[in-house]
Amino acid sequence: METPPKTSPFKLRNIRLFIAFRIFFNCRFYYPVFTILFLDYGLTLEQFALLNAAWAATIVLLEVPSGALADTVGRKNLLVATGVLMVLEIVLLCFAPRGNPGLLFAIFLVNRILSGAAEASASGADEAIAYDTLKEEGDIKDWPLVLEKQMQFRSVAFIITMSLGAAVYDPSLMQRLADWLGFNVHFTQDITLRIPPLLTLLMAILTLLSVLLMRETGRRNNQMNAGRDTTITEAFKLTLAAGKWILKTPLALVIILAGLQFDNCIRMIITLRSQFYRLIDLPEATFGLIGSALAVLGLIMPRLARSLVQKHSPGFNLGIMAGFTFIGLIGMTFFWPIIGLLPMIVLTAVMYLQNFFQSDYLNRITSSHQRATVLSFKGLSFNLAYGVIGVLYSLLLARLRFQVAAAQPGLVDAQLENLVFIKSIAWFPWYFLVTMLAVLVFARWRLKNTDEHKKPG
To answer: Tens digit of pLDDT for each residue in 81-107?
Structure first.
């Protein structure tokens, strides 16, 4: 009897929409100018750090409940909520008034809360609905291939959004383009800072459309219909069960703890990158081109990550990432003009590896009935760590600002801001080294009776 031909995972509707969702939700035109956008609106660097901490805190509060609800009331329903929340958060960013610092901070705080709620709703639900679709209608062995293609398509979209987002933010570039086209328009920073958010609003609408077209998986539909009257109770039970499972499963616990150490440190650096670019003598108009060049890594790193997963153990891959992360963080502290980009390239590459490894390892050892909840626990831990480092970083900035101002009272605001930032970056390598050593000691203790971390995928 002939074996039926294997179905490509990309012929499955939910798989295609999962990739589309990841593209539209994550590729935002304001990313290449994220830090300076907030500062140019009128916020301070400390307020920026606190707003990101509030964003992370919102995710922490909503992450696991949303994952448990995704596993009970439906993954699609949570993703639709994500689309609605994204539209609302971007509308606020598009039309936030300038000139009133108190009102501006309040509006941006609401924006960050809505953004965090959207992240929490999406976390776990998108991956769970795609993975279970592949399990029911295709071959789960194709999941690494789906991850690879998803990252590659998203990288192509990043190249476009990063290039265009930075270009439209530069008033001089926009003015030259308007003059060349013969348009009678005078571009100022007040005008151009609105363009990236407006373009992102289009992405938000496409995000909502993509999730509306998704279909709940058959098994999940049956479970939802069977237990619809007890969904809230089941959500709490599932949350507790998933938490206990993680604590009792050494490999799952270590995977999550190790991942969050890379994520919180590197993500904070990436959040601050536009300010870093300014200080290594790169013009703002190049930020998008740099972002596009970094996004090209998304075409390369997933294939490398798939090879590392198949040929090497989780322990080996952890060591590789830790070494390159420390090298990258040390390199950033020198603030080399132009070539200071090299450490940023290294750290971005590590983030691609980390995201791939986390998804592959956790999905492989997690059962379907609690997949979204466990993935939400992962998101919760990552964002809790990111929120903590955000608060610590804002306190560090305040301390350094006081010290620098006392030592050099003649500095103007911009000079003070830049010097404080430079001194703050020097703390990151040692923070990562101490916390990663603590994780390695803990991992050695928890995994002493197992060799799962020594086996290739």
So the answer is: 899 999 999 999 998 888 788 899 999
Per-residue b or e along 346-372, where b marks 16 or more CB atoms closer than 10 Å to that residue's CB: bbbbbbbbbbbbbbbbbbeebebebbb
Confidence of residue 6 (pLDDT cuts 50, 70, 90): low
DSSP state of 409: T
pLDDT confidence of residue 320: 94
**Widest CA span in the chain:** 85
φ, ψ of residue 229 to 5 degrees: the values are -75, -15
CATH no. of 12-454: 1.20.1250.20
Q: How far apart are CA 390 and CA 435, in angstroms?
A: 15
Which pTM does this prediction carry? 0.69
Spans of all domains in the chain: 12-454
Rounded to an integer, what is the distance from CA 314 to the centroid of its chain?
22
Query: Which helix H or strand E contains 82, and what residues bound it?
Result: helix 75-95
Q: What does the alpha-carbon distance between residue 329 and residue 265 come to, in Å, rounded to a whole number?
A: 9
The answer on pLDDT for 238 being more than 80 is no
Non-local (6+) Cβ contacts of 374 within 8 A are 67, 124, 242, 245, 246, 252, 362, 366
Contact predicate 280/340, CB 8 Å: yes
Question: SS3 breakdown of the chain: % helix, strand, coil, rounded to 5?
Answer: 85, 0, 15
Contacts of residue 198, defined as CB under 8 A and 6 or more positions apart, other chains included, come to 94
End-to-end CA distance of the chain: 31
CA distance 26 to 291: 14
